[in-house]
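Appendix B. One record, verbatim.
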Amino acid sequence: MSEITYVRGDATAPSVKGVKLIAHVCNDIGGWGKGFVLALSRRWPEPEAAYRAWHRDRAHNDFGLGATQFVQVEKYVWVANLIGQRGIRTGSKGVPVRYEAIGTGLAQVAIKAAELDASVHMPRIGCGLAGGDWSRVEPLILRRLVEREVAVTVYDHKE
């Protein structure tokens, strides 16, 4: 079985050949404006526009924890807006990250990656503003993607 590849760099600019699927975690309240989404929005307007429309029309779609929206931004590049955090603030119920929702969303990412014959690229999802612990997220990636033969690269942003 292969492993996750870790690199220093920008997850919005994967330098591998073939179709690339960039996965990241979103919140379930329609907020977009801090963290990795800023890098996405600097590169492409489509992921934010699609996420906001998805949230706005949530009474009529699957928007919610564990759901994943796929947005094509270039011929060989897709973005997965994965809803894996409840709200945006740490409060009485703990940090916003929801590991079960990330696992559910990653299963959908695996299906889409297989369909597109794509590699998956991401920052350390759920571990920035969502407050998650990588030691809990990494096994989800291994189980949902790597064990299904999906090539995964995790990016640590250059300091």
